[in-house]
Design goal:
alpha/beta; three-stranded parallel sheet; 56% helix; rod-shaped
Length: 618
């Protein structure tokens, strides 16, 4: 069975758009933004597998898969497989007989040379043209050309030669006439052969498309030296000029050895081949070429999309094909074949209809847009003027800005892939930056003004801070003086309490003396009364003494009462004194903290002032 042989984009893609610019079918490319970068992927339903993107990618970002791994796996598993080798094997792998030997050592049953199928193909072409009297027939050995006509130039399907390719002619011969059973694998220089072999119109005769490039890569990666294998030759008979089919004009050379004086139009390479088909579809009438010999690849199949050769090796390839042509002509001369058409053997042994094939139109319908939809794309591209819409710089990969706008409308591309769009965005950003700079300049001026005010405020604050520091230091001095006075009061209060207690004790003594004096005065009055006339004077004295004693007692009692009231007050003074001492200590501590903090404040203010000055200058 055929595996998916498709071209794909790998992780090396840098979004340079070369693949778009070199692709004959722009619709097959889809540009996407991935990880903030432009990446170009492929839509397989629109890709014709021409391989131009692989040839032209400078970053090795386009690659393809084929059936190489599957072939080697199935050979080692013992599957019944025979090989068909394209003529380009001679030009791509100089020691090709040893490669065939290695493949046979793995179990390949038979190896047929496609050059023999190319001879059948030439016979079938000439017989079909002669029998149907056709003109302007388009050759179809190249599957890329078939793909393009089926998808993009369906009006040319009636002109496409209904003959199998040399590879398929070989497979038909092997299956029906040589009776070779099992699966067939095609050793190929072409990625697009996958589409030919998987087409229902070819009946699945070939199960593997194995390209020369991938075969050599497979062997190299596994350190397999096929050159040590014994040389083997093909299992089919010697070929004719079919060996040069893989060269540009190879079909023309084959046809011209049988017909002369016929106009055979030759064209190779992309995008020329596809552009020719676009023009050729408009040609009509009988004045058409006898045959159009057309190939997708500029250097023919020898340097095809899956070949091991590169364009720089064109000389060596051409030399190889020249020797193949010499050998074929030598064989022809040795057999003494008459000039002109001589397909009598094929006419006798082969049925022409076995080598016919049909085609299926698979049209890619171009997206259609109205004026409004396209205008939205122009707006997205920031192209508002007629001049901006015809710059056609091709940086996006398209030949015209209009194609880019159409691709954006169809969802195949994005505005960021347009260099003119990027320039417009850059201009807008520059304008925005300029406005921002102007605003910043205005804000900076305002900031300088505000900073100037702040600097003045800082200077004033510094001055006030210095004054505040002096005031706090003065408070601290006064608090210290108050503390000293408090200490002196602290020393006086105990003495005052002692004196008050002594005064209280003296008051008690005065009361006692007064009471005794009063008692003595009473006794003297009694004695003066007894003395009669002679004791009157003494009685007056005794009365005065009693009166003085009463006054002394009353004064002493009043003093004692006052003394009792003063002692608690003195105790209260002592308590207030203790509280005052404690608060004075707190005030002193706070004042010292303030001073310590304010000592650092001038330095801080100086630093802020310097910073503000720099901002102002900046």
């Amino acid at each position: 069975m055929l595996y998916s042989t498709k071209i794909f984009t790998n992780e090396k893609c840098v979004g340079c758009n070369r693949c778009i610019s070199n692709c004959p079918c722009h619709e097959a490319n889809v540009a996407l933004i991935e990880d903030d970068a432009n990446k170009i992927h492929i839509d397989p339903s629109k890709c014709i597998l021409c391989g131009e993107c692989i040839r032209n990618c400078m970053h090795d970002a386009r690659d393809y898969s084929d059936d190489t791994d599957a072939l080697f796996h199935d050979l080692r598993a013992g599957k019944d497989i025979s090989l068909i080798a394209a003529p380009a094997l001679r030009s791509n792998i100089p020691e090709w007989p040893r490669l065939l030997g290695y493949l046979k050592s793995l179990g390949a049953k038979m190896v047929f040379d496609t050059s023999f199928g190319a001879d059948i193909c030439t016979w079938a072409y000439l017989r079909y043209i002669t029998q149907n009297n056709t003109a302007g027939l388009i050759s179809q050995p190249c599957p890329v050309i078939v793909n393009y006509i089926e998808r993009y130039a369906t009006d040319l399907l009636p002109r496409l030669a209904p003959i199998h390719s040399p590879a398929m002619c070989t497979a038909v011969y092997m299956k029906k006439y040589a009776k070779i059973s099992g699966a067939y694998a095609f050793l190929s220089p072409c990625v697009a052969k996958y589409d030919e072999f998987s087409d229902p119109n070819t009946n699945g005769l070939i199960s593997y498309n194995v390209t020369y490039r991938k075969i050599l890569a497979y062997l190299s990666e596994r350190n397999i030296d096929y050159r040590r294998s014994p040389s083997v030759r093909y299992d089919n008979e010697a070929h004719g000029l079919g060996a040069v089919y893989s060269s540009p004009g190879g079909l023309r050379v084959n046809v011209e050895q049988y017909v002369s004086g016929k106009w055979i139009y030759q064209v190779e390479g992309e995008p020329h081949a596809c552009r020719f088909l676009d023009r050729y579809g408009k040609e009509s009438g009988t004045d058409l070429p006898f045959l159009v010999d057309i190939l997708n690849c500029q250097y023919g199949c020898n340097i095809g999309s899956g070949a091991a050769r590169v364009p720089q090796e064109e000389y060596a390839v051409n030399k190889s094909m020249y020797h193949a042509q010499e050998e074929a002509m030598k064989n022809k001369k040795s057999k003494k074949l008459p000039p002109g058409p001589d397909f009598s053997r094929f006419d006798k042994d082969l049925e022409l209809s076995d080598f016919y094939r049909s085609y299926t139109a698979k049209p890619v319908i171009p997206a259609k847009f109205n004026k409004h939809e396209l205008e939205k794309a122009w707006t997205a591209l920031k192209k508002s003027t007629p001049q901006s819409r015809v710059k056609d710089c091709r940086a996006c990969g398209y030949t015209r800005c209009e194609k880019m706008a159409s691709a954006i409308t169809a969802g195949l591309n994005h505005p960021e892939n347009c260099i003119d769009f990027s320039r417009a965005v850059l201009r807008e950003q520059n304008s925005t930056v300029e406005k921002m700079l102007e605003e910043n300049s205005t804000q900076a001026e305002k900031l300088r003004e505000q900073v100037g005010i702040m600097i003045d405020a800082l200077k004033t604050s510094g001055q006030k801070t210095a004054q505040t520091l002096k005031n706090v230091e003065s408070i601290l001095v006064k608090v210290a003086n108050m503390s000293e006075s408090t200490e002196r009061l602290n020393a006086v209060i105990p003495e005052l309490e002692g004196l008050m207690r002594e005064y209280s004790a003296m008051g008690d003594s005065v009361v006692n003396v007064s009471m005794q004096t009063n008692l003595l005065s009473m006794n003297a009055s009694i004695e003066a009364a007894r003395a009669g006339q002679h004791g009157k004077g003494f009685a007056v004295v005794a009365g005065q003494i009693r009166k003085l004693s009463d006054q002394s007692r009353e004064a002493a009692e009043e003093a004692l009462s006052s003394n009792e009231k003063m002692l608690p007050l003195i105790g209260g003074i002592a308590a207030l004194r203790s509280e005052f001492i404690e608060k004075s200590g707190d005030i002193s501590g706070s004042a010292e903290d303030i001073i310590a903090s304010m000592d650092k404040l001038p330095e801080l203010l100086q630093s802020v002032s310097e910073t503000a000055s720099k901002i102002s200058v900046g």
